[in-house]
Amino acid sequence: MNVVQSGLVLQALLALAAVATGLLCPVSWRSRATGALCALLGVAGIVTGAAALGGANGALTIPLALPIDPLVLSPDRLGGLFMLVVSAVGALVSLFGIGSARGAEASRTSWAAMAVFLGGMQLVPAATDVVSFLLLWEIMTLGSTVLLLADHASRSTVYSAAIWYSAMSQLSFFFVLAGFGVLVAATGGTGFQTLATVQEGSWPANLAFVLLLLGFGGKAELVPLHVWVPGCFRRRRAMSPRR
């Protein structure tokens, strides 16, 4: 295995270890142990992303029992850049959480969801096909939604904010799925290189562009798809943990 392949495998293993530690570790050690594993997950992503950005090649292939192409993770230079950036942020947040997480933020649910979110977010830029991209995208969304819901038992505003976030995230996912579906039907494959062969200016290309713009634009809160964000963040600020 080269650096990229080893880094992809290590990220997956560290994410699984962090989830298990967050769920099983006693409260006295939970933040330190899980936070350290999440920080190491970020470091692994930084190294992998830097290697891909520098031109190193490597792929992690995951065969499926379904009659479709296997999942392939192989970041290119652009994917390496995104992986490096999100991994660096994730590592810093994890280190900060070791000493600052209190109450619901330090619960089994929060730390396990944190590991799921970081693992999905770091591996999304490595996706080379529609199936792996959507799977990792949903893993990332699941982790972030559970993080929002972690304090729901003690603060009613959490539930409302999480419902808005989850609904808009799934609506965005629907548009992204539909856009990719149009391209897959037009090109006959699920790999991004195959999708790129769609004829420019054709109706499948134009329709897919609109659908993907709505999907990714909704996730990025682009105007005017941002209208739900102020209310959600007001609710989120209202539930900030008491110190």
UniProtKB/TrEMBL annotation:
Keywords: Cell membrane, Membrane, Oxidoreductase, Transmembrane, Transmembrane helix
Transmembrane segments: 6-25, 37-66, 78-98, 110-127, 133-150, 162-187, 207-233
Main subcellular location: membrane
Superkingdom assignment: Bacteria
Subcellular location: Cell membrane; Membrane
Domain NADH:quinone oxidoreductase/Mrp antiporter transmembrane: residue ranges: 127-231
Membrane topology: Multi-pass membrane protein
Record protein name field: NADH:quinone oxidoreductase/Mrp antiporter transmembrane domain-containing protein
Naturally occurring in which organism (per UniProt): Cryobacterium breve
